[in-house]
Specification:
The protein is of the alpha/beta class. The chain contains 19 helices and 22 strands. The protein folds into 4 domains: about 110 residues, Cobalt-precorrin-4 Transmethylase, domain 1; about 130 residues, 2-Layer Sandwich (Methyltransferase, Cobalt-precorrin-4 Transmethylase, Domain 2); about 110 residues, 3-Layer(aba) Sandwich (Rossmann fold), CATH 3.40.50.10090; about 120 residues, Rossmann fold, CATH 3.40.50.10090.
Length: about 500
């Protein structure tokens, strides 16, 4: 193979649907990609992992609707290799399981482009597993056959070995065959397939939109039509289908089938999204705010430099902790140079972020609100000797409420402000979440701060009919009330785990 291009192309399997089923290698490549070429069945959540400068090119192919013909996709990949150091070709499932990845690899080889194949979990295996159907089972079968119901239309006649498939032992799995389901089932029966053998169709497998139909080979097409199932779907034939009800774990998850909108910043969304996804929810990440440097960077830098001279450091949010220590370690090499300052944090989330730097908090309220922090200082006044004439550095956002400053000053503390960051409206929507919310709706929208409420309302997206609202705490709830909204769910513990627990309890009741 010649080396005419310095760029490298990675053919990456995106898995069957759920973002967390992508391989670690696949995610690492998405994060470093200079160009991302992706298919229709790739989860939009994966696109959010790409760096802001990454060029994204959609080449999705659905039945009767191709963004680009395959030959043009092949040429595009060669062109991308000449233009970008790292191009990731993101394909649903596995690149080589009816994904035409081999054709793309051949085109790259012929053009002298270095390429690498990163396997993905195929829907042929994952789809049945998420529907409670093992493709093999010692009590039922010891082999399985995978075939496609959608052949190259240019071949003239079918090369599908219907007789061989019909006579094959074990489980039979068909991909991309929904448009010809009735015809294929009839052909299999005519070739000797048992008409009464259990069969299933699983649509949108491994996503919150997953639906399944259980029938027999003879009745599956009618059952699918009656249920309104369509592509994309996996069809399974075999005695293993009888395990579906017993082994159906996915539909039993507390948030199975629920579409939940996460409005946190793109950097912060992952912990909430991951927790909700693990409970079966389809997560729509629609960041409404973005963290940017403060308006006066010099003042922030000076505050960080002077921080070792204070008696107390007070942190109002995890973002404040992150930005403070990014600046701190640019000046100081050792956490011990922070000195002997006592630490206060508004809530356990902020305390957890401080713990990453080896710092334990001296004062933290049970409820993550500023008023409770002040009350906690009052309760511990005897222990610490009060706050009068004590020097304090308050680390917070540019738009944060001034409760902490005013109340401590009333108590004669010497308080300086350290404005570590600002929140601005998020203007980018790389995953198309806003359009999906408008077209598909949602079951729940989560708000984790006043900023997320205000900026979501500024988007002008109507709340979907019957959509519920979840608030992380009283301050966020008060902001919702300003817009005439009352949350259905309010977290007792004003943390992300507390919010997840409240959501789970609500939908589980």
């Amino acid at each position: 193979m010649s080396t005419e291009s310095n760029g490298r192309v990675y053919l990456v399997g995106a898995g069957p649907g759920a973002p967390d089923l992508l391989t670690l290698r696949g995610r690492a490549l998405i994060e470093q990609a200079d160009c991302l070429v992706y298919d229709a069945l790739v989860s939009p959540a994966l696109l959010a992992w790409a760096k802001p400068s990454c060029k994204k090119v959609y080449v999705g192919k659905r039945s009767g609707n191709h963004a680009l013909p395959q030959a043009q996709i092949n040429s595009l990949l060669v062109q991308c290799a000449a233009q970008y150091p790292c191009t990731v070709r993101l394909k649903g499932g596995d690149p080589y399981v009816f994904g035409r990845g081999a054709e793309e690899a051949s085109a790259l080889f012929a053009a002298g482009v270095h390429f690498e194949v990163v396997p993905g979990i195929s829907s042929a295996i994952a789809g049945p597993a998420y529907a409670g159907i093992p493709v093999t089972h010692r009590a039922h079968c010891t082999q399985f056959t995978v075939f496609t119901g959608h052949e190259d239309p240019g071949k003239g006649e079918s090369t599908l070995d219907i007789e061989g498939i019909a006579s094959a032992k074990g489980t039979k799995i068909m991909l991309m065959g929904m448009s010809r389901l009735a015809e294929t089932m009839a052909r299999l029966i005519a070739a000797g397939q048992r008409a009464d053998e259990p069969a299933a169709a699983i649509q949108w497998a491994a996503t919150a939109r997953q639906r399944r139909v259980i029938a027999t080979v003879a009745t599956l097409a009618d059952a699918v039509e009656q249920a309104g199932l369509g592509a994309p779907a996996v069809v399974v034939i075999g005695e293993v289908v009888s395990c579906a009800d017993e082994l159906d774990w996915y539909s039993r998850l507390p948030l199975a089938g629920k579409r939940v909108v996460v409005t946190r910043t793109r950097e912060q969304a992952s912990d909430l999204s991951t927790a909700l996804s693990a409970l079966g929810a389809e997560v729509l990440e629609l960041p409404t705010i973005r963290i940017v440097p403060p308006g006066d960077r010099n003042d922030f830098a000076a505050s960080v430099v002077d921080s070792p001279h204070y008696d107390w450091l007070i942190f109002s949010s995890p973002n404040g902790v992150k930005k403070f220590f990014e600046a701190f370690y640019a000046v100081y090499e050792d956490i011990r140079e922070l000195g002997g300052a006592r630490i206060a944090a508004v809530g356990p989330g902020t305390a957890a972020e401080l713990k990453k730097h080896g710092l334990m908090v001296d004062v933290m309220p049970k409820k993550a609100v500023a008023e409770e922090l002040i009350a906690e200082f009052d309760r511990k006044a005897d222990e610490f000797g009060g706050v009068a004439n004590v020097t304090m550095l308050w680390v917070h956002s540019e738009k944060g409420r001034d409760v902490v400053y005013k109340e401590l000053m009333k108590r004669q503390a010497i308080v300086d402000e350290c404005i570590a960051y600002n929140t601005v409206p998020e203007t980018e929507d790389p995953t198309g979440a806003k359009a999906r919310l408008e077209s598909d709706g949602a079951d729940l929208i989560t708000f984790t701060s006043s900023s997320t409420v205000k900026n979501f309302m500024a988007l002008g997206v109507p709340l979907p009919q019957n959509c519920k609202i979840a608030s992380i705490g009283p301050v966020t709830t008060a902001t919702l009330a300003e817009f005439g909204l009352q949350p259905h769910i309010v977290s007792k513990n004003h943390t992300i785990p507390g919010l997840v627990e409240a959501i789970t309890r609500y939908f589980g009741s």
